[in-house]
């Protein structure tokens, strides 16, 4: 009992010893920044505030109008691979026939993700080849197997039905690709390739074409066209056909925007929380608000990274399943009208 | 008059959040009720709930993207 109290007193002392200088320094900063001589007071401030949150670039200390620029610079694609304290790599601009085909930050991230995925699954696959039938997988192989099983049983089989195996390759690829893209946005020097609308649009386009091909295969060209009428009386076709035709495209567009906006929004929120302390130029805000809140949002982002990868895969499977549903035609029509 | 764009963006973002909050709240409430009544159907209900929540969230995010475009223009 006594020991516990002693420890508590000790920690309280330590906390006070930490906080009092902070309070004092805030006072001195507010005093220092009141006179209108920014050049003189600026440089010590940048030095002191920068180590507080190592992830944020030091330019943020220059003022609130800079914060938005820094956030946008962080979110958007550009031609520089920045490794902040160690310098940066300039990527070449390649323009072919008016199209900008240059290798940008996000393209590099896509390659990194692909390389990691190939290495990871080559490793796991190699281990499977060596295993006997009665052996259980261990470590990395086991972790990957759990995810693969989850996608196979709970996503593909549950939504597509009996010929799910044909689409399993695509669903697994897209799940792991999006997951790793999302996760690499959360590590230092990484950037979220899925926070780029071009990447998500490409992924959604794959889903769109696979869905259409599945529908064509399942129903034939006649059945596919009959779907566009919504199974209604010919008098209503003039309304139904445009609606169903637009409905074809809203699904991939919704997939695109959902993934893009989710990944971008999380990063904007984290950076905004960090920049609050730079804008207000105080340690108290940094300790009480910026750091805890941004850690909270960061953990939420970790969850969102998994959730969005899952939702993209799940909805792709659902769309494919709806498009290629054989039995229960009426039910399918009702279901399609909702989505 | 230039400030009105920001005003519109702020109000729009707020309204989109209200809509999405009400929608996802309804979905979650019904799902919790369903699980309480039929605990054996938890897995199915969860899947349905996540899909519905994702669709609602998608609509809200359309709104938010438009608001961000308004604010950044």
Automatic annotation (TrEMBL), chain B:
Keyword Nucleotide-binding applies: no
Site (Reversibly protonated during proton transport): residue numbering on this chain: 57
Keywords: ATP synthesis, Cell inner membrane, Cell membrane, CF(0), Hydrogen ion transport, Ion transport, Lipid-binding, Membrane, Transmembrane, Transmembrane helix, Transport
Pfam families registered for this protein in UniProt: ATP-synt_C (PF00137)
GO molecular function: lipid binding; proton-transporting ATP synthase activity, rotational mechanism
Listed transmembrane segments: 6-29, 50-72
SUPFAM superfamilies according to UniProt: F1F0 ATP synthase subunit C
GO cellular component: plasma membrane; proton-transporting ATP synthase complex; proton-transporting two-sector ATPase complex, proton-transporting domain
Domain of life from the UniProt record: Bacteria
Annotated compartments: Cell inner membrane; Membrane
Statement: the UniProt record of this protein carries the keyword Nucleotide-binding: no
Lipid bilayer topology: Multi-pass membrane protein
Domain annotation V-ATPase proteolipid subunit C-like: ranges: 7-70
Major subcellular site: membrane
Function: F(1)F(0) ATP synthase produces ATP from ADP in the presence of a proton or sodium gradient. F-type ATPases consist of two structural domains, F(1) containing the extramembraneous catalytic core and F(0) containing the membrane proton channel, linked together by a central stalk and a peripheral stalk. During catalysis, ATP synthesis in the catalytic domain of F(1) is coupled via a rotary mechanism of the central stalk subunits to proton translocation.
Description of how the protein assembles with itself and partners: F-type ATPases have 2 components, F(1) - the catalytic core - and F(0) - the membrane proton channel. F(1) has five subunits: alpha(3), beta(3), gamma(1), delta(1), epsilon(1). F(0) has three main subunits: a(1), b(2) and c(10-14). The alpha and beta chains form an alternating ring which encloses part of the gamma chain. F(1) is attached to F(0) by a central stalk formed by the gamma and epsilon chains, while a peripheral stalk is formed by the delta and b chains. F-type ATPases have 2 components, F(1) - the catalytic core - and F(0) - the membrane proton channel. F(1) has five subunits: alpha(3), beta(3), gamma(1), delta(1), epsilon(1). F(0) has four main subunits: a(1), b(1), b'(1) and c(10-14). The alpha and beta chains form an alternating ring which encloses part of the gamma chain. F(1) is attached to F(0) by a central stalk formed by the gamma and epsilon chains, while a peripheral stalk is formed by the delta, b and b' chains.
Family recorded in the similarity comment: Belongs to the ATPase C chain family.
Protein name in the entry: ATP synthase subunit c
Species: Pelodictyon phaeoclathratiforme (strain DSM 5477 / BU-1)
Gene this protein is translated from: atpE
